[in-house]
């Protein structure tokens, strides 16, 4: 039986909190920021909880 290898890329992008929630960074804050309003870039700071529809898939990728 082969070993299960968690998805390395997903592990770098998401973090599991102590209570078991999966949090991620907001997308769209890496480049082309001059064209985006300051209000938009401020809204994209910080982390958000992964959508309920995606949690099962992300947990599978993480091996949880």
What brief labels describe this structure?
16% strand, elongated, ribosomal protein, 3 helices, Ribosomal_bL35, three-stranded antiparallel β-sheet, 64 residues, Factor Xa Inhibitor, 36% helix, alpha+beta
Provide the fold topology:
Layout: H1 8-13, E1 14-16, E2 22-25, H2 38-43, E3 47-49, H3 52-62
Antiparallel strand pairs: 1-2, 2-3
Explained architecture:
There is one protein chain. The chain has helices at about 10-15, 40-45, 50-60, and strands at about 15, 20-25, 45-50. The protein is an alpha+beta fold. The chain has a single domain, classed as Factor Xa Inhibitor. Strand 1 and strand 2 form a beta hairpin.
Alpha-beta content class: alpha+beta
Strand order of the largest sheet: 1-2-3
Q: How is the CATH topology named?
A: Factor Xa Inhibitor
Could you list the spans in which at least 5 consecutive residues all have pLDDT below 50?
Answer: none
Distance between the termini: 19 Å
The largest sheet is:
3 strands, antiparallel
**DSSP helical segment count:** 3
What percentage of amino acids are in beta strands?
A: 15-25%
């Amino acid at each position: 039986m082969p070993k299960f290898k968690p998805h390395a890329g997903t592990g770098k992008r998401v973090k599991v909190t102590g209570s078991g929630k999966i949090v991620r960074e907001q997308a769209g804050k890496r480049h082309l920021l001059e064209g985006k309003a300051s209000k938009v870039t401020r809204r994209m700071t910080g982390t958000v909880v992964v959508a309920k529809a995606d949690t099962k898939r992300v947990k599978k990728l993480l091996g949880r």
